[in-house]
TrEMBL record:
Superkingdom in the source lineage: Eukaryota
Occurrences of domain Carrier (ranges): 575-631
Domain AMP-dependent synthetase/ligase positions: 39-370
Matching Pfam families: AMP-binding (PF00501), AMP-binding_C_3 (PF23562), NAD_binding_4 (PF07993), PP-binding (PF00550)
Protein's UniProt keywords contain Transmembrane helix: yes
Listed name of the protein: Carrier domain-containing protein
Domain Thioester reductase (TE): start-end pairs: 679-869
Organism the protein comes from: Xylaria multiplex
Amino acid sequence: MECAPAYGRRLMPTVLDDLAARSPARVYAAIPKTNDVKDGFRDITVADVARMVNFIAWWVEGRFGKSDKFEAIGYIGIADVRGPILFQGLIKSGFKILLLSPRNTASTNISLMMQTGCSKLLYASELSPLIDPMRASSLSLCTVAIPSFEDMVASTPKHYPYQKLFEDAQDEPAAVLHSSGSTRLPKPIIMTHASFAVLDNEHNLPEVIGRKRRDWTMWSFEGGGRLFTVFPFFHLGGFLMFTVAAIFGKTTIVYAPPFLVPDGTLIRDIMLQQRLNALLLPPSLVEQLINEPQGMELVKKLDFVAYSGAPLSSAIGNRLSKIIDVFSPYGATETYPQPELATSPEDWEWHEFSPHCKHEMQLFDPEEGTYELVIMSGESSKNTAAVYHNLPHSRGQFHTKDLFIRNAEKPNLFKYYGRKDDIITLSNGEKFNPIPFELRIQGDSSIKGALVIGNGRSQPALLLEPKSSEQPSLEDLWPLIEKSNTLVPGQGRIHRGMIILGCPDKPFARTGKGTIIRRLTEDAYRSEIEKLYVDMHSSNVYDLQADAQTLSYDRVTISKFLRSILTAGFPAGVSIDEDQDFYSVGLDSVQTTILVSSLKRNLKGHTTASCDWITPRTIFKNPTIHALCELFYEFLNEGTIPKHNDENEDVVPKYLAALTSTSKPAGTREPRTLTTVAIVGSTGFLGPEIIRSLLMDSSIIRIYCLNRSKDAKERTLTQLNSESFTPLLHKLEYLTIELGKPRLGLPDDDHNKLAAELDAIVFNAWRPDFNLTVHSFHPFLHALVEVIKISATSVRSPRILFVSSLSSVGSLASNSTVPEALVDDPAAATSMGYAQSKLAAERVLAAACRRYGISVLVARVCQLVGASARSDGSWLSAVVTTSKTLNLIPSHVAVVDWVRVSDAAKMLYDFLKAPGGEGEALFYHITHPKQQSWDIIVDTLRKRLNGASVVPLRQWIGRLKEIEHPSRDKLPAAVMLDFFESLAEGGEKLTYDTQRASGASSVSLARIDVKFIEAWLGE
């Protein structure tokens, strides 16, 4: 009786010899007889391969002796079976193979040889011209051509013994591949027999009941199977298939003619000759194949299609997934493919990693909802983590630097997002992933390569590599760039004038598998890039022509000029009306800063007057084309520098007028229950915490999450980030709304459903931007009116809980106590649009409560904090981060009355459950009853920042203003200067009545002391 294989304890040379003895006829590979695959294939058996391995082992020993130090010998070959044979022969003779790519530059290959102490290079004679530059660059290099395949297969050598046991040989090096080098020069990765045993050991992983495995066992076809791949031997995918899969598995590798460039036609012709079980291809070849005549019919006969190296288009993947398993194994040279579980056909783009291999998905960017895959590589993982052996210096945890997003409905599923190295960080600290943009551009038939650059710059630029020497015009490419701009956030969009067309004589640097090497390509184009950014700061990109006779500027001309500059900051395809608020269509504070610089630069040639008066506040106060046009009309023609108007406009009458046509429903309103709740604004800092509290209430059966963003599911799930909530997520239903639109922009069915089912509405959506004027908050006030209409006209009359701010009453008389009651005075708010709009909302709600008898609750909330300063992104954490960078601490900013965000959410839930609010709005204050002075912050920071000076807030602001192009990461307070200047004016010496809040909620607030502050500041 044949013994079961000792999976995870086997050595390839011994297994090969054993197979040659026991199953000599088993087919190892099928190779084409000629360069035309229609002439048929020749099967190469394991007996043939074992014989050729013995031949090459004796051949190597005859030239270099037998090594006892596992010396590296380099190899550059063609795509034939000699590579795997040489690999096994070198192991037998005591060496390890260093796989070099013929696509690498000579200097890259020499670098890898130097890093591994390699002085011997073997090569296929067909590649002799590539060896000459390497010989020329290294006098000590010994180069030898290996025997031809015909010589190997015709050989009759004696057996070359290899009798090592796994226990003795497991840590011996066997092969050296190298990292992709996509960001820098590649580094060698030394692989041992224990590395390969990790893949073999996947046979021993426990089954997951009811689930199909997608790990190394899938390459062990029952009864044998045939695989075709175009990945070369020096690439991890090719190397593992040609060696580990062919020897440890039951896989026969089908080779293509070595000098033919693979395409869809060639693969189809091979499939007509060979009964294949699987394909492992780059996505471009998958697409070519299924578009070939008979392509789809041939694919249907496979067990599966695996793709690697790039994303597969959704259209192609969706077609294939309906007829066959299609997936992308996740892995890297350092880690090998990671064991996974098969997903449902509709989830073909997603990964579900095996629960039997230790890993963590560590939250990387809460805003983007991205996670980094971290592989546990400690002693307990050495049988399941190849990185334990491949990178022994990374034992414990290996951060892959690969980012994923989580599936909102299936939290065990993750989709690949990009590399941390790919993320571009601008000088203002804004980050974005350029990969979707680059892939879209590279999909154009005229473009070979696209590279977005901009790390440390004020805005990104695009470097293009045309496919032919005839360069396409930028005008022809602009529609493609505009479409691609929709795939990245505002800060990542490419503007006109920020594009470089590459030179035919300066091709992009690439890895062996064709990936662009970002850093080396940027270095090659360094002078062009520097010139582009210099020109950006010194030249006029947009023209502004005065009337030739009057030498004056008309409003139409100024409007076009402003539009050409300002619309660059908006999403592609967005059309801005003359009176449309910029901030309602996607402009933000960072983009505002960039646009101000562009305005100043482009106005220089048209006026002798200083443009220093143009600041971000200019845009905030005049956030429409019409308003700015009037401003610049006076400036350009009269030299008039406008004065900022800080008057507090009373907008309440406008919104009360919008409610005049609203009428109460006929009949008796239903008794109040709390089973169905809507939250407007479930993402952000506070929203997910409110959802936590609602989910834990067993009497609440449905929670509608109303958000502007279409990715609200993913973002909310990321922030909940706890398996304990997974069984409760069925309660959540997400609807996308449009602020400022009638009925919240919802389809009639959804709007009617809310009106019929809701018992309560939590209004938590407000833009946390302290720079904007009241005008820019009109969409939120419009949305609030629509919510009031739902409550006022519904038989269920859902109560409204509005999350307001203490700043809405921050300008009341100093040293007074603010009551938990309506303050019907527009001047009561602090002098910023955020606070003024919150107060306006309170007044509109109170009036609606009296008019319609609906239940209204208003919670004025203090500064909320998270578990650490890094987690909340507030003005408070901005002070801390900026103070660290400046080594300067402001002596007084505000009283410390903080409440943890989790406690605030629990209090809001308690308010929602409390009775009252009909006919007369109930106001609550969420603030700490025992305030501390700012000194507690100063003292704690001084201990941490050795040598930091303490200065008045105005001096701290002044120092910040002196810095040009401040980094948003290191100096986040720079985009909130107006807010901090308002704090410097004082006037915050208020106390707040909390009697009603403390009566309605039993939440016990943590004491604010040094321990609390230390914990919040973290490491």
